[in-house]
Amino acid sequence: MKNISFWKRIGTAALLTAAVLFQPQTSLPVHAQEPQAAAGLQTQQTAEEAAAAAQAQADALMAAHLVAWERAKEEYAAQLAAYQQALAEQQAQAQQQALAQQQAIAQQQAQAQQQALAQQAIAQQQALAQQQAGAAVQAGNASQAAGQPSQAGQSTDGLANTVPLSPLAGKTVSILGDSITTYQGWIPEGYACFYPDADNDIKDVTQTWWMQVIQNTGMRLLVNGSYSASAVCGDSRAEDSSAGCSNRRIVDLMGADGTVPDVILVFMGVNDFFHSITLGKFSGTPSYRTDHYIWDFTEGYELMLQKLQAVYPTSRIYCMTLLEANSGDHPRVNGNGNTIADYNSRIRQVAAAHGVPVIDVHNCGMEVYELNRYTSDGVHPNREGASKIASYVTNALLLAG
């Protein structure tokens, strides 16, 4: 009986086990379904994260493209601006070249016209000189026949007698000077003037040094282009400039009808000394100078001579050294430590380099310790000083022919 109960219990256990093992899957308990739900949720989150990462990458790529596009636009704009600037510069350069060519052509035409006028004037003056020479010879013969001395000119207030057969008779002369060479009514309109002056005994134009030279040599005044207080240096370009190197001063030496002077006297530089204009350096050979505001005596004097030779190629140009300036019985020294002798030395050097003769007026006999005798203020000649200058310049011109 005991064994039967044992086997019953075994059978019952087997049946229960089989019943449990062969139940349907859907009937699993809740705690068996939870791992599957968790796995599905994790897969969904991973997909969302991947999608978000892809979107972020696309956004970053788009932003990079936008930055590159903006940079490309800026580079294009810069290149376009550079091209437009280069084009404008090229057009401006072309216009400047065209203008320069037009100016060169106009200058050549003006020079040709000046040369033609100069040749015409020379021919007329030569004919006049020949007529005067013939008349002088006839007058001499007549006076000799009458037993009287021949005189082609008369002395005026101490002036030397005009040389009958002066090689300069009938030639025209223009003067480029400062206050020492001025006289009211005999200089261009608008030019500053010194003579006549209340403290100076020169009261008539015939008492000036330059008019005495004209009468002594038989020349005819074309233009006295002298400007009181003017210096060689200054603004060489301004239309109203008083600088000796300016275009205005150079052109004003020409006659009203374009007549070119036969002789040009240059007597400037003392105001450069008084203004302590830098003396500058000179190599001994000509240097091409350009227009600008000049504050260097060597450069200014050389530019002045170059312009004179360019505008008046047929004129005989003479440079004149400066009269002494004193301080008591001693030569005056300017703010740079230079004397009149320093400026005169540079005038000689520059003139020689350009083939221009020099009249050394500094040695006319007006010594530094005698300036109170020959000038009214230590600078401007009085009647006695003017006569000394006139005599010296006359002799130099007649010797040069």
The oligomeric state is: single chain
**Low-confidence spans:** 15-22, 24-28, 136-164
What is the β-strand count?
A: 9
**String of helices and strands:** HHEHEEHEHEHEEEHEHH
N-end to C-end Cα span? 181 Å
Main pleated sheet: 5 strands, parallel
Indicate the proportion of strand residues: 5-15%
CATH class of the domain at 156-400: Alpha Beta
Pairing-aware structural class of the strands and helices?
A: alpha/beta
How many helical stretches?
9
Using the alpha-carbon principal axes, give the shape. elongated
- The main sheet orders its strands as 2-1-4-6-9
Give the overall pLDDT as a whole number.
81
CATH homologous superfamily of the domain at 156-400 - what is it? SGNH hydrolase
**Cα gyration radius (Å):** 51 Å
Helix content: 40-55%
Record keyword descriptors for this entry.
elongated; Rossmann fold; alpha/beta; five-stranded parallel β-sheet; 401 residues
Topology:
Layout: H1 2-21, H2 30-146, E1 172-177, H3 209-217, E2 220-226, E3 234-235, H4 247-251, E4 263-267, H5 270-274, E5 293-294, H6 297-311, E6 316-320, E7 326-327, E8 330-331, H7 340-353, E9 358-359, H8 371-374, H9 383-400
Parallel strand pairs: 1-2, 1-4, 4-6, 6-9
Antiparallel strand pairs: 3-5, 7-8
Helix pairs in contact: 3-9, 6-7
Describe the structure.
It holds the Pfam family Lipase_GDSL_lke. Keywords: Coiled coil, Hydrolase, Signal. It comes from Candidatus Eisenbergiella merdavium. With 401 residues, the chain is of the alpha/beta class. It has a domain at 156-400: Rossmann fold (3-Layer(aba) Sandwich), CATH 3.40.50. It is 52% helix and 8% strand. The protein contains nine helices and nine strands. The chain has helices at 2-21, 30-146, 209-217, 247-251, 270-274, 297-311, 340-353, 371-374, 383-400; strands at 172-177, 220-226, 234-235, 263-267, 293-294, 316-320, 326-327, 330-331, 358-359. The chain has a five-stranded parallel sheet with strand order 2-1-4-6-9. Strands 3-5 form a two-stranded antiparallel ribbon. A two-stranded antiparallel ribbon has the order 7-8. Helix 3 (209-217) links the parallel strand 1 (172-177) and strand 2. It is elongated. The termini are far apart. Mean pLDDT is 81; it is low at 15-22, 24-28 and 136-164.
